């Protein structure tokens, strides 16, 4: 509990999204008093504007497409019902259930904007001044980046928040950016009834992933009617009554809404970094225990997107669990083990980050791509096969998928795996276990996949590696 004045705690967490909740929860489980400060909704971006609502928007279209790939079947859906179902996942943007969890965990929740104002000191909206006996943890996430496009400040654009919370489906949707957000929401809205044009400055989609992943997603979007413009630039935008006119390579395209999905940056501009000698708006560099570098005393921690390490909800939660555990150990006078793969080191951030792009086909990957492995100087072998097993043929007629594994030849272990195809997302955890566990391939050979499932692709990958 806090002291009698209610302003002194063992730990103060700034940001009550999924990452902040985990840091606060693990610190509380260690027996520490915890205050958590949130300016918006408890549960944060993932719960209300990102992971959950975006996947709800995608799921029905994917299910209908999967049904249509089976003979003798037909399926349709009501776009409004999809929006209504989306609202159930966001609880109509009401965070009462998340607040109830925090209170049940013994966490003191404060509403308002928090700034660091001194060593182990946090001020909330210029009012309450909180002091932390052991640690302050920054978990404020990230914010969208707006590119320097002529006229962009003269029109109302969508961020991902607008796209995932929209009450109506626009007849025409422009999407700027071919990363995960751009691809997922382009497909979601095309299937919901929009005519979508996606403009990507680069020559490929999903540029940070294996090239074949972006190629297959691009082919799927085109097949569904998305007007995909690669190697294109959005030169300018201008208002057109209630619409927006985009100038793309000299061609004018009018859309009813324009989604800007050109990346995000750490949300650190207004959390008081200057009070501890750091530059506002910058990425918070942390060690594997989550301690912010450049701040004396080791009392300032950070986790999630603000660190720039692995800007994914699940990785942020992983780092937050480690931060909470480390703070608990320090408070108890116990040693912190910095060794890789200890409970005090976020080692997976470096070598075993899983990710799923929930397009159709899905892209599921973990670890290094071929390019990243070669850049790291590893002696690798790349194994590519189609996903063509009994399980995939049952999943859909004409199933078309691909799998790649990257093998570190010196150690005989996997360092990267990528699957592309319908319903591959649930296979990525097996790959993650193999990469994290550094399971030798000769041992992995004895992990027999159940028949007939798509997991049989593991047997085919290993057979291809071993050769005839």
UniProtKB/TrEMBL annotation:
Q: Does the keyword Aminoacyl-tRNA synthetase apply?
A: no
The cofactor remark states:
Binds 1 FAD per subunit.
Q: Which domain of life is it from?
A: Bacteria
Report if keyword Chaperone is assigned. Answer: no
Q: One biological-process term from Gene Ontology?
A: 2-oxoglutarate metabolic process
In terms of Pfam families, this protein maps to: Pyr_redox_2, Pyr_redox_dim
Q: Where does NAD(+) bind?
A: 177-184, 263, 305
- Where does the chain bind FAD? 55, 140-142
Family membership? Belongs to the class-I pyridine nucleotide-disulfide oxidoreductase family.
User: Can you name this protein?
Assistant: NAD(P)/FAD-dependent oxidoreductase
Question: Could you tell me which species this protein originates from?
Answer: Pseudonocardia broussonetiae
